[in-house]
Amino acid sequence: MNKRLFTTPEGVRDIYDGECKRKLDLETKLRAKLHLYGFEDIETPTFEYFEVFSEERGTVKARDMYKFFDRDGNTLVLRPDMTPSIARCAAKYFKDEKGPVRFCYCGHTFINNSEYQGKQKETTQLGCELINDSSVIADAEMLAATIDCLLEAGLKDFRIDIGDVRFFKALIAESDLDEERIRILKNFIVDKNSFGIKDLLKDENISEELKNILTNLPQFFGGVDCLDKVSSMTGNKDALLVFDHLKALYELMKVYGFEKYIGFDLGMISKYEYYTGIIFHAFTYDVGEPIASGGRYDNLVGQYGKKAAAIGMTIVTDKLLLALSRQGLLSKDTDKPVEIISSERSQSDAVKRAVELRREGKSCTITYNN
């Protein structure tokens, strides 16, 4: 028999037994927490037209999507990112809505990327989106919902790093660098390569003040104090407005009582180009990648026909579950079904007993013993 019948393609896997139950229980708990914030459930298709996720939207690159064709020749893709799908829905069904619109979801995303060797190409993402609200209160609410969900899951030791794409954009506008140098600069910042940045900028006709702040950008992370430190290094008015926003955001997180989970990373660069304001990642130990992320995307919904500010977050439940497991924070399954043993002569009694238990909300099984 063909061995491929017993295996799965690279990047996907079967989830079964206790792990499947724990994952579903976790998703139920997190959705209930998001409902407390007023988010309402929404489901979008697993595959959509390619244009919904095309590169101009600022989402995943076309070569990293799973693409196929329908019978009419339209190019379809398995969704690589939940946010564009939600933005499309908001523009279609809530085009005339002026007040805040809140969605929460749980679904699978698919990335066909060679860099994902050994990693899952199908992941489950659970998150929420807040449309029609551009305020700092909305930013704080999204961070609070993220922290509340991680705490509800049982995670104890984690940190959320916050950046803001407007800071980098303000510096770039001042530098007047061309697109190729900006691309190289971004890669150096992601790699935290200050030497590469210094070498890249040494012959550029920009001020020493700007060279200094760009060169040290990868090191601008830490507590709220780093905002004052970095703001004192620049006179860029647009950049200074970003610091005012981040400080106001931090004050609101103190009101929530969540400031101990907050840090700042002013050199944070996102792979998604649609972000327009704050961006953030949640980290914990024993997992090498963010377990949650999000940010503000005030221009994306407009690409589908509705001009609206928006912010969202997503939790990768697979990674969260892995973190809980490695940190020994998963509770053992103790609610095993009641086993009813039946013989040929006691079949009716066994069935009656099973019916009674299930009506009481208790799990049970009937085992035939001949």
Largest sheet: 9 strands, mixed
Biggest β-sheet: strands ordered side by side in the sheet: 1-5-6-12-11-10-7-9-8
Query: What letter string, H or E per element, gives the SSE order?
Result: HEEEEHEEHEHHHHEHHEEEEHEHE
* CATH class wording of the largest domain: Alpha Beta
**Which range does the strand content fall in?**
15-25%
Structural shape: elongated
Quick synopsis:
With 370 residues, the chain is an alpha+beta fold. The chain has eleven helices and 14 strands.
Topology readout:
Elements: H1 17-36, E1 40-41, E2 47-49, E3 67-69, E4 75-78, H2 82-93, E5 101-110, E6 122-131, H3 136-153, E7 158-164, H4 165-175, H5 179-190, H6 194-201, H7 208-215, E8 221-222, H8 225-231, H9 237-256, E9 262-265, E10 278-284, E11 292-296, E12 310-316, H10 317-326, E13 338-342, H11 347-359, E14 364-368
Parallel strand pairs: 1-5, 7-9, 13-14
Antiparallel strand pairs: 2-4, 3-4, 5-6, 6-12, 7-10, 8-9, 10-11, 11-12
What would your notes on this structure say?
With 370 residues, this protein is α+β, with helices and mostly antiparallel strands. The chain has 3 domains: 1-157 and 285-334, BirA Bifunctional Protein, domain 2 (2-Layer Sandwich); 167-256, no CATH class; 338-368, no CATH class. 38% of the residues lie in helices and 20% in strands. It contains 11 helices and 14 strands. It has helices at 17-36, 82-93, 136-153, 165-175, 179-190, 194-201, 208-215, 225-231, 237-256, 317-326, 347-359; strands at residues 40-41, 47-49, 67-69, 75-78, 101-110, 122-131, 158-164, 221-222, 262-265, 278-284, 292-296, 310-316, 338-342, 364-368. The strands form 3 sheets. The chain has a 9-stranded mixed sheet, with helices on both faces.
